[in-house]
Amino acid sequence: MYYHDKRLQYPVTVDKPNPAFARMLQQAIGGVEGEIRVCMQYFFQAWGNRAPTTTYRDMLLHTATEEIGHIEMLATAVAMNLETAPASVQEEGAADSIVGAVMGGGSAKASIEGMIHKNLLTGGLAAMPIDSDGVPFNMSHIYASGNVAADMYCNVAAESTGRVLAVRLFNATDDDGMKKMLHYMIARDTMHQQQWLAVLEELGGASANLPVPNSFPQDMEDQANNYNFYATSVDGTYPEGRWTAGPTMDGRDEFTVFQNKPLGQEPVLGPARPDSGAQDQQIG
Amino acid sequence: MYYHDKRLQYPVTVDKPNPAFARMLQQAIGGVEGEIRVCMQYFFQAWGNRAPTTTYRDMLLHTATEEIGHIEMLATAVAMNLETAPASVQEEGAADSIVGAVMGGGSAKASIEGMIHKNLLTGGLAAMPIDSDGVPFNMSHIYASGNVAADMYCNVAAESTGRVLAVRLFNATDDDGMKKMLHYMIARDTMHQQQWLAVLEELGGASANLPVPNSFPQDMEDQANNYNFYATSVDGTYPEGRWTAGPTMDGRDEFTVFQNKPLGQEPVLGPARPDSGAQDQQIG
Amino acid sequence: MYYHDKRLQYPVTVDKPNPAFARMLQQAIGGVEGEIRVCMQYFFQAWGNRAPTTTYRDMLLHTATEEIGHIEMLATAVAMNLETAPASVQEEGAADSIVGAVMGGGSAKASIEGMIHKNLLTGGLAAMPIDSDGVPFNMSHIYASGNVAADMYCNVAAESTGRVLAVRLFNATDDDGMKKMLHYMIARDTMHQQQWLAVLEELGGASANLPVPNSFPQDMEDQANNYNFYATSVDGTYPEGRWTAGPTMDGRDEFTVFQNKPLGQEPVLGPARPDSGAQDQQIG
Amino acid sequence: MYYHDKRLQYPVTVDKPNPAFARMLQQAIGGVEGEIRVCMQYFFQAWGNRAPTTTYRDMLLHTATEEIGHIEMLATAVAMNLETAPASVQEEGAADSIVGAVMGGGSAKASIEGMIHKNLLTGGLAAMPIDSDGVPFNMSHIYASGNVAADMYCNVAAESTGRVLAVRLFNATDDDGMKKMLHYMIARDTMHQQQWLAVLEELGGASANLPVPNSFPQDMEDQANNYNFYATSVDGTYPEGRWTAGPTMDGRDEFTVFQNKPLGQEPVLGPARPDSGAQDQQIG
Amino acid sequence: MYYHDKRLQYPVTVDKPNPAFARMLQQAIGGVEGEIRVCMQYFFQAWGNRAPTTTYRDMLLHTATEEIGHIEMLATAVAMNLETAPASVQEEGAADSIVGAVMGGGSAKASIEGMIHKNLLTGGLAAMPIDSDGVPFNMSHIYASGNVAADMYCNVAAESTGRVLAVRLFNATDDDGMKKMLHYMIARDTMHQQQWLAVLEELGGASANLPVPNSFPQDMEDQANNYNFYATSVDGTYPEGRWTAGPTMDGRDEFTVFQNKPLGQEPVLGPARPDSGAQDQQIG
Amino acid sequence: MYYHDKRLQYPVTVDKPNPAFARMLQQAIGGVEGEIRVCMQYFFQAWGNRAPTTTYRDMLLHTATEEIGHIEMLATAVAMNLETAPASVQEEGAADSIVGAVMGGGSAKASIEGMIHKNLLTGGLAAMPIDSDGVPFNMSHIYASGNVAADMYCNVAAESTGRVLAVRLFNATDDDGMKKMLHYMIARDTMHQQQWLAVLEELGGASANLPVPNSFPQDMEDQANNYNFYATSVDGTYPEGRWTAGPTMDGRDEFTVFQNKPLGQEPVLGPARPDSGAQDQQIG
């Protein structure tokens, strides 16, 4: 179960509210590489964890709980960037409504055009669980496979795209408050990349974990096609690299190259049945 | 641009058509860890690849093209498993319609209850781009970040969950034809896990690539919070492991533990404006 | 069954077409608090209504039918706001295409940037069943629970958020025609809020209806935890109010406060099976 | 920010694991009336709350935090219901795979047909953020309008449909452990219905809050159409009730009935432009 | 604006309620080829129709209004199929709850396994705007392009897939009441196919309408590539037919065949910028 | 199976990169009328084709394969339009980040406001499988019905809306490179409209194919309601046309007009059961 402290994980301040940056920050809340995703992903991995010990369940709970605080920070930052524009701007604009005020600034920052419209019309100038184009987050992005190694790679992927996003947001703003918040979140993403890779190492590293799942006897997979790069170019060329020659990453074989060609038959399905809603012409 | 050969990549045969297994196979077509996903993910990574050389773009094209053939194999397998039930079963059932025939078998395999209904009602007993519960694939699962290392981790994650799925499908069927097809696809997933990890090694491995993105100067992130595990348990306990002590995975620091507590303030948003659609009670 | 009159429910006129306002109006068509939602919600509640009399079914049909006319008004308003810009603006712009014309005005109102692009590219300058950011309406928002009291609260919620939206739209435009249309729709939302609350009163009010569903014998719920506010703050503080002391809203008890703590056990799931696609390390 | 305790909010035990009931429970996790919805809804209402005081923000945080623990309980219950079937059943079945074991029981409870397939194929026999038919939760269901009264009605609606669901689940199982867990969750839903209604009363009750939003001057809405029931039946009949006569719920007027008819014009849009991608026949 | 009559368009009776057939019928309500789709599609085409006359707008309104009554019939049929099972069946089962009753029948028809679970858990045994696998209808399927010929082809497509579905449903049931309802709906689909094709003929038929849109000067399209079949087989074979030789359908040219090959260049994108969140290795 | 050539199907050049046009082009990639849709639609129709011969399966494979190359062209065009703005513009802007550079141009073309934000934040200035408002493509738009005539009408509809879109894009740009690419794609859409209509002619044309499906004995449909236009206007008027009189399109009957009225009963559902989660008031 859970507790809260109403103070934020880390200070969130905005020197100059900017609705356009609020839009960008929404990607870090409701984007597929955002904080709702990692929070819920770690929770579902924890709650469904099956193993002889609860170590990984426990660790995931610590970090999932941390991530709630990240959503909170970002939601606060979005609301702050959507705050009332300065009084002088209001006066310059003819607007006597909040929308007019937001529209009236004359600068790109205050334009309704640069905003996700739902932030105003549906949320009343607050954050929503949507991405930077207003698309709601879909929970199908919560990857929790029941395989701890697969999950850890999913987590590294999530924290890698997450940190790429945070860096882009950092580069996109010149607001000192926002840069400070983001330099913290970028740091936490660094740690979380490390953390999930540390689990993989503790589990024995690539040679022990690969191929995922390692519980399937590898001699039951097609031994002729498990370490060869398929070249599908019509002219037979292919890019050489670490993946076309030399020892495989798990140390069990050598990479080779296969010029791809059909190994199977031309498929032929049976004709349609008379009573299947097909056209007469399809019925044998 | 692209060419096709109407023969299949690998033989697809079904000894005993089983609509219930057709449902399961749909997960490998339109599930989030399925073949449409990897196919389109590699294509979009290739088409948007920015780098001094085209090596990774080229390589991704080879494998993306290979994956089209995997969707094709699975779609063929689904249709075959949905084929007309054996004549004797038909005769046993009173049904003279295709639905009746499928329903009438009396065995779990032939029951309409075990099928995705759209496979019959919408697709006419063919495969569809949906998962094993009938949910259509959503293209937001195509991860292509513009960062080659992040993309490679996304690809390892996709092939890890993909192979986990293929193994579960292999274990779920006792049809020799289906087992043969799957033992091939499991092997290709093995290779693709290797392949994306090989790219990461060629790029310099963990120490060179981490943290992703490595182009952000690491001294600009919060140095006090980039290598410490946050313990969020209310009683101060935490699970010890590779992530709480010892050298970090990139070799640049030591892992430590931080008993989490608020570092920020209690956030206070301004009151609502009179003209913002709030209640009077919210207006300062 | 249904009839139509090709005249509108209420006059819809636009003094000065404004594509940016067309975008805003889309929220009232295809937003989650828009008119498609209430229309379909009332229809599905009516069509599935189970009760000894058809009174509520009948009433819902009346209002659902009214709401079709509201979608129609808004769709007309969107198309009107997307009408050809004035000839003089066209001439000023170099554009000889409709897109150019729309883009060429030089004012915020006529900019393609302020438009939902699909309104032009997919709809040909007409309304679509999408929200103000271009996201299509999803029918999962049609709440029809089979419980009349729950449905009425859902309806009050829908008309409350709906009227909030209409007020925001009213405040956002200075077009007299649009203000007139909206002052009518705001009035209808007022009535509909009243209407669903009137049903709740006719059903006996809060004391008779609560808790919803009232058909579950209340002595079968956990009597120790049905009227106490759970304080989850780590420092034991909580906001006092009507919900922490005094008689409950149904008059059956007194509100109290519970300092939250775990009442249950640490959950332990069994280890993964050898054949479940997990890693070997997860298998006991 | 947030803390956790790894013990559950309330005991979760399953006497006889039942994959079919696991499917049902999924509705309470990822259904539109489930726990992810209320948890996130209260969080976003709290984080975006604008008011002269932080009372409602604070209160919402308490309950949002409580709700995380409810998702956790349900996720645990789903995983437990998906646990290994009893050894004797395994032995009866010929299956040596986990799927086979689940399928092999011969009873409805253990049939793969009764399961959400993704719970097995994607989740590895764990809970997922999906509903009882396998549809992922979509965050567009998080209602946070920026208007505190509208939000409270949304919350009452959510807890009403939520308790209806919990009662249906209670009625659907004969497992004592599950009944005990649900009798607790039903009680909490009772309290939460009370709690949000208490806020509405503290804000002044219906007369003070209606129409929502109360900050829009009511004399600016169409006074001729804000308290009359629209009868849309083609034969002029309508169901009489509390909504057709007598004082309105806010005490400001009397309900009347209006035989609906068009008050507006037949709309005529301009012809299509020559360069708008229309057919020639549409161009004036 | 709109009126209703509470009687149904056509009689809906169910001789023997069958929850499994209720599930199938849901496809005709909320499936992509269902009645919500055509109803809303015709409405949006009507409301956005731009042309010198209102003929097509008017006609579309007539048929859109008719379609509301079809959704109503199907929703009624779903609820009827979900009705209380006969008392004797109830008595046979030990169940004293509605779920138990539905489950307890012992026949495939009454099994909860064969039902969409949301029909029970969320809808309380009523129809919902979902398809036969429980997936909610998404309004992106409302095709209204602003081009009348394109719209008519979309409508023929909708009514063709719609009638295919209705025929499959007819074949799937042996309930006389349901067969009668469906034989009516199949007839209306026949008429609607005719109706939209009649519009295309009235507009001048294929030669006048093609290519859609006909307002784009055809000499501005690539004259070398507008009437040739692209053969993409790697071995140069292709299926001969009406599309490879002979006069084109619009009578303006002859079909030819082109052995496909690249006509363009190898694309080369610029390297990533140093500040774009890419890896260092991608930066030129 | 499949092969690729890394050269493009047709030259793609951009004279002056324009992020606003990149946004528009996204509709042709991930819009419901875009190239992913037709590509996947033709593939799934091919892979599931049931007929006595493989002719249509083969033909569909040729064209599906061609369409991959169209997605590739458009993805390349999007990335090119998102390329680094000219050096002089960069210098004019104060920006030292990629976002700043894009924002800094001062012209509509270079404004971040005119971009889909995910193209920058998630994709790193590359194409994504989303539409022009940032909504991801949903695979439910892949129509493959198992009925060849229905499928062909779906394909004509797809290529008609697709060409309408391509024409709008052509009209929206003044970039010579983009116009050249689009004049090619418009031509291919012309051919594909022809191609699917040619299949319908080869199958016997309207009289042979209608009503779709033609395998359902037409005398089993309601003969009184299969060729009459339903007039639903409350005043009895209706628009006369090809659809109200004269021979039907299949030549089997004459069109007539029916003044619509209820032919069925008022539906009455049973009351709710005591244990179904309804309110007591609903229980008979």
Automatic annotation (TrEMBL), chains A, B, C, D, E, F:
Pfam family, one: Mn_catalase
InterPro entries attached to this UniProt entry: Ferritin-like, Ferritin-like_SF, Mn_catalase, Mn_catalase_dom
Bilayer-spanning residue ranges: none
Region annotation (Disordered) ranges: 259-284
Gene3D superfamilies named in the record: 1.20.1260.10
Stated family: Belongs to the manganese catalase family.
Identification of the protein by name: Catalase
Organism: Sphingomonas hankookensis
